Amino acid sequence: MKQSFTEKFKTFLKKWKRAILVLLGIILITTLIFVILKKIGILTVDTILSAIKEHEAISILIFILVRTVAIIFFGFVPGIGLIFETVVMLMWGANFKGFCIAYVAIIISSLIEDAIGRFGGSKIIVKLVGKEVYEDAVRITSTKGLVYVPFMYLFPFFPDDAICMLAGTSGIKWTVNLIYILFFRGVGTAVLFGSINIIPESIKTFTDPNPLNYIRLIVWAGLCLIVLFKWIRKLDKYLTKRMKKYNKNKNAN
Fold first, then answer.
1. 101 near 63, Cβ under 8 Å?
2. 26-57 pLDDT, tens per residue?
3. What is the Cα–Cα distance from 220 to 195, expressed in whole angstroms?
4. How far apart (Å, rounded) are the C-alpha atoms in residues 81 and 83?
5. Were both Cys, which of 28, 34, 59, 250 would link to 52 (CB 3.0–4.6 Å)?
6. Per-residue pLDDT tens over the stretch 230-253
7. Are 175 and 206 in contact (CB under 8 A)?
8. 3-class DSSP state of 76
């Protein structure tokens, strides 16, 4: 029996209630701080950028610390990693320097997640990411297999932070998981930064006078996403099929 739109919406709200509340809370607090600082004349784009350039090493360390804490405690919020990668691009640019900052932050948070799973166990993971996200990660790793963890790091449709913690509780060696993190999460970050650099500077700065160029970019990005999700679905089906076949042969023996 098919669910109505209202029922689907209620199911969605129930599933993502915690994530939505946290996300709204972060937006509200950030907006409030921004408004207060702007009112008293402390906060402007120029003052932020000049402060970052003047104290760059400290700014980078603060960013990495904030990202690491946020990813560990709010990893269940959809797209939270992408938010921080966007912040890097705005603060340091979508260049090699920005990539390195984002990449180092991702590695540090991933290794801490591995350590949490390795030494804290499933109870700690449930407390950090929530029962539903944890169960999703367990279901995915049980159907696709831990051998496919690197692919799960590469694509955004998996709960990769929870899976990274699960990798710590599994039989995957720390050194092997480190290689997965370094390569596959690095590739994912490089693709993101590379994609931004394809966009013309005039469009990124909204100085292009031709509205058709913005429309073309949106259409092109939409087509790329459709192709990506179709390919991801095929990969997902392939991984599931391979894992079922492996389990069947294992049970037969």
1. yes
2. 677 667 766 666 666 655 556 666 766 777 88
3. 12
4. 5
5. 59
6. 776 777 677 667 767 766 776 666
7. no
8. coil
